[in-house]
Amino acid sequence: MIRKLYPYTKGYRPYMLLGILCSAAEAVLELLLPLTMSNIVDIGIVSGDRSYILTAGIKMVVMAALAMLLGITASAAAARAGMGFGANLRLAVYEQVQKFSFSNIEHFSTASLITRLTNDVAAMQQTLMMGMRIVVRAPMMLLTALVLAATISLKLSRVFLVVIPLLAVVATVILRKVGPMFTTMQQATDDLNLVVQEDLNAIRVVKSFVREQEECSKFKTRSTHLRKTAEHASGFVVSFMPLMIVIVYSTIIAVMWIGGHYVYNGIMGSGDLISFITYITEILMSLMMVSMILMMLSRSIACARRIIEVMEEAPEITDNAADSALEVPDGSIRFDHVSFKYHKTAKAWNLRDISFTVDAGMTVGILGGTGSAKTTLVSLIPRLYEATEGSVFVGGHPVQDYTTKHLRDACAMVLQQNTLFSGTVADNLRWGDHNASDEDLREACRVACADEFIDRMPQGYDTVIDQGGTNISGGQKQRLCIARAILRKPKILILDDSTSAVDTATDAKIRQSLRQVLPGTTKVIIAQRVTSVMDADLILVMDDGAISATGTHEQLMTSCHIYREVYESQQEGVMMDA
Q1: Contact yes or no for 70/20 (Cβ under 8 A)
Q2: Model pLDDT for residues 315-343, shown as the tens digit of each residue
Q3: Of 157, 167, 454, nearest in space to 291 by CA
Q4: CB 564 within 8 A of CB 557
C-alpha cells in the first residue's frame, strides 16, 4: 500500500525528510534535559556549586529553546508535506475518474466517489501530518529513554519487561477490532452523501411532492447510522484508554516505591530517581502515542484501500488505437450486428443484433417506446459505452481505431438531461468551442432559436446561469445545449429527445436551420413526436432493444403498424387540442 501511495509524495519529500530529522533531534534534546537536571541535583546542589548549577541551567534553557525551534520546524514541514500529498493524491484520483466510462462510475456511485475524493483523502493527509511527528518522535523517545533509563539503573529497568508487553497487547487488540469499524464508517458516509446528492439534485421534485419531511427523515436515519457507527468505533478505542492510563500510573507508582527504597539504602541517588521517573513517563507516553497513531493509521488504511480501489479500477474504454493521429473523415455510421448489455454477467441484452448504415450528411430519426434502448444505441457512437458484440463504424473505421478525443471531437451530443454549469451564458456556450467569437455565439443561438430569449435577458450573453441552470426554463436550457453542440461544428450531431420541451413550431424551425447550417453533418434525432423525424432520410423504429422497422416516413406508414399507430394517435391528439 505504501509503495502505491509513495509516488504522490513527489515534490514534498524534502519536507518529509526535514520534518523527520527535526522531530528526531527534538526528541533527543528533550530526553537530555532530565539527565542535565539529574546532574544539577546530584552534583550542583549536593556540592553547593552555584556556578555549576547556573551553567547547567543555561544549558537546559538553550536545549529547550533549540528543541522548541526544531518542533516548530518539524510541524511546519509536516503540514506542508501532508497538504501537498493530499493535493497530489486528490488530483490523481480526480484524473482517474475523468478516464472512467459511465459503467466505471456506476460501479462506485457518484456519492462514494465524492466521499473518497474529500473525506478519505483528508483522513490520509491528516495521518501523514500527525504521523511524521509521532511516528518518528515516539519511537525515538522510546528507544532513547530506554537506553538512558537502563544506564541509570538496570535493575529498576526490569519493570519495562512487564509494562511494555501489556501495552502491546492492548494496542494489538484495538488495531484488530477497530479497522473494520472504520471501513463501515466510511461506507456510512457514502450512504449519507448519496441522500444529500439526490435531494439537492431533485429539490424541485421534493418540493412539488411536498416530501420535505420524508426526506429529512431519510437523512436523519442515515445520519444517525453514521453517528452510531462513529460512536461505536471511537467508543471502542476510548474504552481502552483508562486501562492504558492505569497501566502507566501503576508503573510510575511501582518505580517510585522500588526506587524510593534504593535511594533510602544509598543504592541510587535522588536525582537519578527523578530522572528515571521522567524517562519512564516519557517511555509510557511514547507507547500511548504509538497506540494513538496506530488507531489513526487504522482509519487511514481503510481510506487508502478505498482510494487504491479507484486508482486500480481499469477504465472500460481506453485509447488502444494503433494510429493515434487518425481523425474522423466524415459522419457516416454503420452498426454491424451490434449487441450490448450494461453488465457482462447480465442475462438480458439491452440491444440485440443491431445493423444499419447511415451515409454522411443524412438525417436519421429514432422512435420507440420508453425503455426501447434508444439512448443506449446512440451512446455507442461516441463510445460512451463499448459494444459487447459486433462493431460500430464511424467514418468507415471501427470506433476503437480512433482516440476518444478525436472521436468525441467529431461528435456532439445533446442528452436527455440537459446540463449547464455555473457561469455566464457565453461561458456555457463556449464549452462547444473555447475560441468561438461573439458572432459565432450569436449565429449558433440563432440556429437553435435561443437568441430570442437571450436578447430579453438583462445582461444578454453575460447573464449568469445558476448551478444546473435552475434560473431558466427547460425549453431554454434545451436550446442553449443545442447551440453549444452546434458551435462544435461536429461531423455527427446527436439530439436525444432534446426538443421535447419546445413547441412544435420551434422544433420545426430548429430542424430546418440545422439542415441549412450543417448540411454535411450527420444528424441523429431521438424523438417522441413523429413530426420531429418524419422528414428524416431514414427512420429507425426501436422495440425492446431491437430494430423493428426502418425506412422513410412514407415507407413506414405502409409497412410498420407500430409507426402508423403512433403517428395516428399523435395526430388525433393534435386535432383534439385544436
Answers
A1: no
A2: 888 887 656 778 999 999 999 999 999 88
A3: 167
A4: yes
**Contact call for residues 331 and 399 (beta carbons, < 8 A):** no
Residue 260 is predicted with a pLDDT of: 82
| Cα separations in angstroms, 467 against 208, 274, 425, 432, 482 | 20, 66, 12, 18, 18
270-311 and 212-264 helices, crossing angle to 10°: 150
Q: Which three cell numbers stand for residue 292?
A: 494513538
Residue tagged 548549577 (cell numbers): 53
d(CA 463, CA 475): 17
Q: What is the DSSP letter of 493?
A: E
* 274-289 burial code (b ≥16 CB/10 A, e <16): bbbbbbbbbbbebbbb
Show the low-confidence residues of the chain (pLDDT under 70). 175, 179, 201, 204, 237, 240, 284, 287-288, 291-292, 294-295, 321-323, 572-578
DSSP 47-71: HT-HHHHHHHHHHHHHHHHHHHHHH
Grid cell, residue 151, equals 544506564
Comparing CA positions, the residue from 330, 349, 448 lying closest to residue 396 is 330
Return the bridge partners of 525, or none: 365, 495
Please work out, in degrees rounded to the nearest 5, the angle formed at the alpha carbon of residue 134 by the alpha carbons of 128 and 137.
Answer: 130
In residues, how long is the chain? 578
Please say whether the beta carbons of 437 and 416 come within 8 A.
no
**CB contact at 8 A, 396 and 389:** no
